[in-house]
């Protein structure tokens, strides 16, 4: 791993178009080699986009592998490039909402697009934040990842096992909570809510935390700019009348929003995650091979 990290450090000096094309080429190779992940991606696409032909879904899955690999290699720039270079490459639209972050507790709701780390960097160029962090098995990679995500501003990282109390305390100290809301963490603290029409175990934590703190929920989505020109980080207006009294309805609203963003950049969503792993009672996992 240290050799790989050393290679990534060297490659951060490359122009982004070269690094990005290298990452995409590796992704094409991984699409052929990683059969289990390819199966997961294709299963998700069959469930979520039945209107596509199988040929179209295979092509979309291949582009996803290219995008995901590209995002991993491009993290070298996020971790080691100068602040000036990052500001040139990251287009923030309409801008990091600093006034919003200072006025009241804020949840920055960041769906799992492959460039989500870019969204975190865009915020940390302007403001500290807090977030959930899962320690990596490899200590060298874990250290680099932590340093890369906190090199511009102090960041408070909490374990999921600690629950929401430290997050709420940090938010009340005016630290925005950078939240990744759309993975399957099991049935605990989740409700089965449609995602592309398929029941998905969906965390109710965004609504519950917003209700407990009076926080505004500001969605943020990071995607690639065309022609390897950099990244786009888009901040959306705070959700009005959220979460309301019905946490299931709030989760449904969140999933519907994410669906809209996925359709805008379908190859960049995290299709290799088992989003439908947890099933309602009596329903088999869709990822079991026949």
Characterise this structure.
This protein is α/β, with parallel strands linked by helices and 290 residues long. The protein has one domain (2-268). The protein has eleven helices and nine strands. The strands form two sheets. Strands 1-9-8-2-5-3-4 form a seven-stranded mixed sheet, sandwiched between helices. Strands 6-7 form a two-stranded antiparallel ribbon. β8 and β9 (231-235) form a beta hairpin. It is globular and about 50 Å long. 37% of the residues are buried.
Structural class: alpha/beta
Shape: globular
User: What fraction of residues sit in β-strands?
Assistant: 15-25%
User: Strand-and-helix sequence, N→C?
Assistant: HHHHHEHEHEHEHEEEHEEH
Overall pLDDT metric: 94
Question: Top keywords for this entry?
Answer:
alpha/beta; 290 residues; 11 helices
Which secondary structure elements does this structure contain, and how are they paired or packed?
Elements: H1 2-11, H2 16-33, H3 35-48, H4 54-80, H5 83-89, E1 90-93, H6 98-103, E2 106-109, H7 116-124, E3 129-132, H8 139-149, E4 155-158, H9 165-172, E5 177-179, E6 190-195, E7 198-203, H10 205-213, E8 216-224, E9 231-235, H11 247-264
Parallel strand pairs: 1-9, 2-5, 2-8, 3-4, 3-5
Antiparallel strand pairs: 6-7, 8-9
Helix pairs in contact: 2-4, 3-4
In short:
The chain has helices at 2-11, 16-33, 35-48, 54-80, 83-89, 98-103, 116-124, 139-149, 165-172, 205-213, 247-264, and strands at residues 90-93, 106-109, 129-132, 155-158, 177-179, 190-195, 198-203, 216-224, 231-235. With 290 residues, it is α/β, with parallel strands linked by helices.
């Amino acid at each position: 791993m240290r050799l790989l990290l050393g290679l990534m450090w060297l490659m951060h000096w490359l122009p982004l178009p070269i690094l990005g094309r290298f990452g995409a080429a590796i992704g094409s190779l991984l699409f052929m080699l990683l059969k289990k992940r390819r199966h997961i991606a294709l299963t998700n696409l069959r469930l979520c986009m039945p209107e596509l032909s199988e040929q179209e879904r295979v092509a979309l899955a291949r582009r996803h592998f290219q995008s995901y690999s590209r995002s991993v290699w491009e993290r070298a720039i996020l971790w080691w490039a100068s602040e000036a270079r990052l500001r040139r490459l990251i287009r923030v639209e309409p801008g990091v909402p600093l006034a919003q972050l200072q006025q009241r507790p804020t949840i920055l709701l960041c769906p799992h697009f492959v460039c989500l780390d870019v969204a975190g960097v865009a915020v940390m160029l302007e403001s500290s934040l807090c977030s959930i962090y899962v320690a990596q098995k490899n200590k060298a990679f874990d250290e680099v990842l932590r340093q890369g995500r906190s090199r511009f501003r102090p960041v408070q990282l909490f374990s999921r096992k600690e629950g929401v109390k430290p997050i709420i305390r940090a938010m009340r100290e005016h630290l925005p909570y950078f939240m990744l809301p759309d993975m399957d963490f099991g049935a605990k603290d989740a409700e089965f809510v449609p995602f592309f029409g398929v029941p998905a175990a969906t965390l109710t934590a965004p609504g519950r935390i917003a209700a407990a703190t009076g926080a505004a929920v500001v969605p943020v989505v990071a995607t690639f700019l065309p022609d390897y020109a950099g990244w786009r980080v888009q901040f959306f207006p705070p959700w009005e009348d959220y979460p309301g009294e019905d946490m299931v309805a709030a989760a449904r609203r969140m999933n519907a929003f994410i669906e809209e963003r996925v359709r805008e950049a379908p190859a960049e969503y995290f299709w290799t995650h088992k989003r439908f792993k947890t099933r309602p009672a009596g329903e088999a996992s869709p990822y079991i091979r026949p």
